[in-house]
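Progress note, sequence design subtask.
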C-alpha cells in the first residue's frame, strides 16, 4: 500500500475549497463535479481530496492508499470489514473497508488511468 492523500468529506464543496485555498493550498484537479484535489504550498502533488458524497460523509475522513488491484484485494481478503463492493472511478477501481476501530481505509488502483491522475500524486517509494 502506498499512501496517496487524505480524503475529507464535505457538504459544500466550493465553501470547503475556498477554506483550503485561503490556507495556502492549491486546486490541482477536479476529476468530477464532486471532487477537488488540493496540493499544499508549492508542492505539485495532491495532499488533500475534498469529496462531496453521502457515503463518504457517513464514513468520515481518512487515508487513501494506492494498491495494484482493488478487485483482487477485495476477493482475496473477504474477512476485511468492506463497505460495499469496489466501484469504478476515473483511475480504475475504488473500495473502502474499516479497520478494527471502525476508521475508513480507502484503496484505489490506477488500472484505467491514462496517467492524467496518477502523476498528480507524490511518489512515495
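Output:
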Amino acid at each position: 500500500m502506498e499512501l496517496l492523500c487524505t480524503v475529507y468529506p464535505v457538504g459544500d464543496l466550493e465553501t470547503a475549497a475556498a477554506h483550503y485555498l485561503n490556507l495556502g493550498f492549491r486546486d490541482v484537479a477536479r476529476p468530477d463535479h464532486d471532487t477537488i484535489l488540493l496540493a499544499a504550498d508549492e508542492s505539485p502533488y495532491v495532499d488533500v481530496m475534498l469529496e462531496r458524497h453521502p457515503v463518504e460523509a457517513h464514513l468520515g475522513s481518512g487515508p487513501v492508499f494506492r494498491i495494484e488491484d482493488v478487485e483482487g484485494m477485495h476477493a482475496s481478503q473477504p474477512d476485511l470489514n468492506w463497505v460495499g463492493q469496489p466501484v469504478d472511478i476515473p483511475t480504475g477501481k475504488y473500495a473502502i473497508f474499516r479497520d478494527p476501530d471502525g476508521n475508513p481505509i480507502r484503496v484505489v488502483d490506477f488500472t484505467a488511468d491514462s496517467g492524467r491522475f496518477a502523476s498528480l500524486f507524490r511518489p512515495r517509494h
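The CA atoms of residues 91 and 113 lie 4 Å apart. Work on this subtask will continue into the next period as scheduled.
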